[in-house]
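Human: I'm a chemist; would you kindly supply sequence and structure tokens for a protein?

Assistant:
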Amino acid sequence: MDKQVSPVQPTDLQREAAKQLDEAFRSQIAKSSLGVLPVSLSLAYADWLMHLAASPGQQLLLVQQARALLQESLVRAFSGLRVVDAEGNPVKELDHRFSDPSWNEWPYNILKEGFKAADAWWSEATEVDGVSRHNHHLVKFFTRQWLDALSPSNWALTNPEVLKTGWESMGQSWLDGCRNYAKDLLEYQKNAAPIADASRLEPLDFEVGKDVAVTPGKVVFRNHLIELIQYTPTTKKVFPEPLLIVPSCIMKYYILDLSPHNSMVRYLVDSGYTVFMISWFNPEASDRGLGMQDYLQSGVMQAMAQVKAHTGAARIHAIGYCLGGTFLSIVASVLDRHNELAQAPQRRREDAAPNDQQGKLPQRRQADAIRFDNLPELATVTLLAAQTDFSEPGEIGVFIDDDQIESLHESMARTGFLSGQQMGSSFKFLNSRDLIWSRNTRRYLLGQAEVGNDMMSWNADTTRLPERMHTEYLSSLFLNNALAAGHYRVAGVGVALNDIKSPLLVVGTMRDTVSPWRSVYKIHLLTDTHTTFILAAGGHNAGIVSEPGHPRRTYQIDSVEKGHGWVEPDAWIKKAPMREGSWWEAMHAWLKERSGAPIAPPAFKGESLGDAPGTYVFVRYAD
């Protein structure tokens, strides 16, 4: 007898249709909210509001603070008093939105002081005990975003600098602003329509291979994931240890090879290093199955093997930037652990695995997929703005929770990748004060032309991430902090950062919102080896591109040896010496100290696959 289908129970077809409808609906919501689901945001504000409602003492304090701030702002505005230091000198306005002297004149000083008072009050109001950590982060971040949007500097009638500039230019600045707005609006409408042919994309302001990424070299290896570039030596002798750079796969590699005057690659080549660079493939939809293991083994480890094969060097220096630094720290853990076991006495092996009939460690047997005999030893490991502990990921953490990762997963399931446009919008949103509101004020209200540079051009040259890799990266590292917790695995082997024995040079940047320096600094907790930490001025990109000769550059640097104790970051920053100039010079001195006596430059081995910058760097997509 045929099975009867209850009209109460939905069929599989109905369930699938309902699921697709839900995914499409959530996708549209996510697009309108830059990836942050309103559900997550509503829950966060509900959490904050309910805890605030249950805290009458906190409410009284906030009322008292509101009254005090209002009184202080009115007194300062109407009396014309300026904030002074202990010696009575006027304190420089730190908020660049109000740096123009016209903000100190009535009635605009009232608007400025009122806004700053509101900003201070809301900053205190978001600090309510009991709110979950992630919800607190969301509330604090979005409250600041909304306040930045409401700043009087963003509106023509409440910005005295806009009115003064327009009056002095007889309206020319306003006319120029309207032209800039019309130009950007037309460009936005053009980009909103899908471009089927990537060749129709607007050319970059700085052409790759002509204006940027021009350091001479050869592509010496290529697989589906990477091209490996070996740069041409410029010195009569070079250090015997080649230097491999692992850039992040969420960006084009030439952030480290911009114009000749600010190229880290050129600086290192001119300093006597044989430099190799990974250029990551920009994935297609068919690459959706590429995962973290592919990037680690077919990417970083394969590049290391090729450096050894092309130079014959048994030891190399390695530098990893951003996510490339995270990749490098994982590989360094696996490689240093293997080398330590390989050098241990046979008795240690037998004691470690008494039940193994073959006399091998079970962990080693699980890692047979990795050809360790092809890999060089690591003379040093340098990590640039690279996180290894993700418990405090900074502002990007607002996009990381179960709901939002599931939303991203649904989006990538339709395309097979995370588009560069999605990543670019997210990073712009993280720094909306400067990249959105202040930019709009300059272009549309003050009528200023936007002066491009090589870094801005590079920033527009976006890349994709494969579905599987991005999902694994967010879930295992960001959401579960598996690397710091010792739960991450490579070829079946657990990764412990404490296995890193190579000397570490770790660089953080003061204004980094992608890899906050305090988070980067936490590698001191996870490793036990010589560690030199540098805290450079600037942000995630500008702080790393810090060429010698740039004025007013500073950095702090300090070192600890194996067996070091824990020094909190706030204590470190108070005692670490401050130096003037570029931290690149300190990096060169640190690498030189751990390098052998210079030798004749190694010749290119094997068949060249083309000149630098290769072919993968030119791949662009219209999304």
Summary: The chain has a mean pLDDT of 85. Residues 217-399+463-618 form a domain with the Rossmann fold fold (CATH 3.40.50.1820). Residues 56-79 form the longest helix (24 residues). The two ends are 54 Å apart (CA to CA).
